[in-house]
Amino acid sequence: MPAFEREILVRFRHCDAAGWVFYPRYFEMISDLVEDWLEEGLAAGAPGLFHRRKILTPSVHFTVDFLKPTHYGERLTFNLWAVKVGRTSCELRIEASRQRELRMRVRQVLVFISARTARATAIPARLIERMRRFSVDAQSASPKTRKAPSGAKE
Amino acid sequence: MPAFEREILVRFRHCDAAGWVFYPRYFEMISDLVEDWLEEGLAAGAPGLFHRRKILTPSVHFTVDFLKPTHYGERLTFNLWAVKVGRTSCELRIEASRQRELRMRVRQVLVFISARTARATAIPARLIERMRRFSVDAQSASPKTRKAPSGAKE
Amino acid sequence: MPAFEREILVRFRHCDAAGWVFYPRYFEMISDLVEDWLEEGLAAGAPGLFHRRKILTPSVHFTVDFLKPTHYGERLTFNLWAVKVGRTSCELRIEASRQRELRMRVRQVLVFISARTARATAIPARLIERMRRFSVDAQSASPKTRKAPSGAKE
Amino acid sequence: MPAFEREILVRFRHCDAAGWVFYPRYFEMISDLVEDWLEEGLAAGAPGLFHRRKILTPSVHFTVDFLKPTHYGERLTFNLWAVKVGRTSCELRIEASRQRELRMRVRQVLVFISARTARATAIPARLIERMRRFSVDAQSASPKTRKAPSGAKE
Questions:
Q1: Chain C hits for B12, Cβ within 8 Å
Q2: How many CB pairs (< 8 A) connect A and B?
Q3: Other beta carbons within 10 Å of D68
Q4: What are the C-alpha distances in Å from C70 to residues B53, B54, C8, C152, D76?
Q5: Contact B32, B96 (CB under 8 A)
Q6: At D6, is the secondary structure helix, strand, or coil?
Q7: Residue D152 confidence (pLDDT) above 50
Q8: What mean pLDDT do residues A31-39 have?
Q9: Residues of chain C with confidence (pLDDT) below 50
Q10: Residue D117: burial class (beta carbons within 10 Å; 0-12, 13-18, 19+)
Q11: What span, in angstroms and rounded, lies between the C-alpha atoms of C46 and C35?
Q12: Measured on CA atoms in the order B6, B9, B15, B20, is the torsion positive or negative?
């Protein structure tokens, strides 16, 4: 199954005093990626979900491995798969690579909640349908697309 | 064993359009906390490590659970323990709570590297010694200090 | 007249690939400073203004001079004066120094608006009263406290 | 003379608890814009300047007016002109609009410095040449491209 793919240029603002991406900035990139996935991949409209449907998608879990540092000026290719899609939450797998070298591997769990009640709300049916286009069997995700790095911790 | 403890006020700049802490800002808080731990808890001097010894401490792993949202104006109490201390890396456990309600639970792995060679370097012996003051048996950390939330994923 | 004074430690997260404070991070420091002034200097409660009174204080103007770079690990002393206090807006003068060396000089204009209507709203009378404690004649602010740098643009 | 133009989508990460762009995030957008101008407009390579020539371009001055708030999901059109080009510094004018409504107006002064010596260094001749493509007489900049907002402060 295809991933949702976006390229992100590493900006001066992403980098720390070592000239490498500072980890909170990686999470800003992830936020942008998921927003684009909702907006363009699922045609849900991340601003639309928020503005019109008063749905928020806070993250409740992250497992992240930073495998290699990334420098100012490099272009990272992000891939996103929907590993599990539940009634009110979904689990994403995200990988960021530069020229096929894996730099970061992420497991993220999002929950759909109502901004009005702050309680979990069912993911709209048409979104669940579209999420399936990006789903993948968790175990096979990485091997299919690229060699798993040796010494991976998962 | 005592944790390294710091209070962090949730600022306007930490919060998103829902009025809750935006997750990349939590990682900025973690960065500040670890800096204070190196500087004050270990008397290592985070700027000192960087400026004088050319040692960097990049993060290579995070496991994070966000258990409850946190709002603008709340004060979070952060606790940090050194769960494992190796030759060139250490594993931290961090918890952020408000009035004993756990909001975030983190496992973070730091590696000590030389800024000159970008390779792992031994943690200075005096730091290893001081890290032990904040060490704790991983399994017992959370139960000792507060009830583990049900449905915890670890 | 006394300034509202706060010390801010330059964190790793503030610094760019040159090891200097990155200018968007200076504006984050200014945001924290103004928040503390509202909260502690004016006893207004910046979260209180926002949460209880639904008042926001967006900035509509900045004039900023960065006079010298500031490095990771340095402590900056921020001073804030209320140069002009109007019915719905106020003009602040902010200076950040390290050991009496001026690093940044700021003129900032804030407007008080209602979060409900997004229109300007009168600054509460008790706040105007308290702002006067931090007021200063604009022309004399800098000369009184320290020598104006040569080549200043204002 | 034509401006250097880029569109920037207002992201969730740019917005504060009021749902509007938080001003430090505007400065992050400005940083990206200037980086793109150096890289694409001047073919200088902002990473290239930094990595290969060890040239940094810190900002020494900003005058900024925020004329209207901008919301999550809106697209801003940024225009940049080189108002003055000196031997070691240049003055930029930047405007951000949504659908021809001016939201922010910026005057920014950049200095070219050597990362090795931290002193001002001559702007490379080929860059000065290319900057002229984006130059404009300061007074005429805004009127030519769009109506000046009433009540403008400059």
A1: 31, 35, 46, 50
A2: 63
A3: 13
A4: 20, 19, 12, 18, 31
A5: no
A6: strand
A7: no
A8: 94
A9: 138-139, 141-154
A10: exposed
A11: 6
A12: positive
Q: Do B61 and A153 touch (CB under 8 A)?
A: yes
Nearest residue on chain B to C27, alpha-carbon basis? B13
Look up residue A47 and give its amino acid: P
Q: Give the type of residue at B67.
A: L
Tokens read off for D51: 């990595």
**C22 to chain A: nearest residue by CA?**
A13
Name which of D60, D64, D115 is nearest C61 (Cβ-Cβ).
D64
Interface test with D, best of B11, B16, B28 (most D CBs within 10 A): B16
Q: Which of C107, C97, C84 is nearest to C147 (CA)?
A: C97
Closest residue on chain C to D17 (Cα): C50
CB D17 within 8 A of CB B19: yes
Long-range contact set of residues C121-125: C-beta below 8 Å, sequence gap at least 24: C121/C55, C121/C88, C122/C87, C122/C88, C123/C85, C123/C86, C123/C87, C123/C88, C123/C89, C123/C90, C124/C44, C124/C53, C124/C55
| ipTM of the shown complex | 0.87
Question: What is the reported pTM?
Answer: 0.89
> How far is Cα of residue C40 from the mean position of the Cα atoms in its chain?
13
